[in-house]
Specification:
Blueprint (H helix, E strand, L loop, with lengths): L2 E7 L2 E7 L3 H21 L5 H46 L3
Antiparallel strand pairs: 1-2
Helix pairs in contact: 1-2
C-alpha cells in the first residue's frame, strides 16, 4: 500500500504516495525541484505553473531519450546474441 511522504518542491509542500519509500520519493522530489530551479535561472517566467510545466516537458524529453537509448541497446544486444549463437552453431557443426 502506498504511503504518503511529505516533500517540498519549489516552495510547495506536497504529500506524495509511493511504495518505494521515503528516500526514493525525496530523491525524485529533489530532482524535480532542481529542474525547476535550473529552468527559473534560464527563463524569464516566475509563474510556478509555467515552471512546473516546463520542468515536466524537460523531464519527459529526458525520459524519452533514455527510452530510445535503452531500446537501441536492447536491439544491439539482440544482434550480438544472434551473431554469437551463429558463431557457436558454426563451430559446433565444424566438429570442434
Amino acid at each position: 500500500m502506498a504511503r504518503a511522504t511529505k516533500v517540498v518542491i519549489d516552495g510547495f509542500t506536497l504529500h506524495v504516495g509511493s511504495d518505494d519509500g521515503d528516500e526514493w520519493v525525496h530523491a525524485r522530489a529533489k530532482a524535480v525541484d532542481e529542474k525547476i530551479r535550473d529552468i527559473r535561472a534560464r527563463s524569464r517566467t516566475a509563474n510556478s505553473v509555467e515552471l512546473a510545466l516546463m520542468a515536466a516537458v524537460n523531464l519527459a524529453e529526458e525520459l524519452e531519450h533514455l527510452r530510445q537509448d535503452h531500446q537501441a541497446m536492447l536491439e544491439r544486444l539482440e544482434r550480438l546474441n544472434r551473431r554469437l549463437s551463429e558463431a557457436v552453431s558454426l563451430d559446433a557443426s565444424a566438429g570442434h
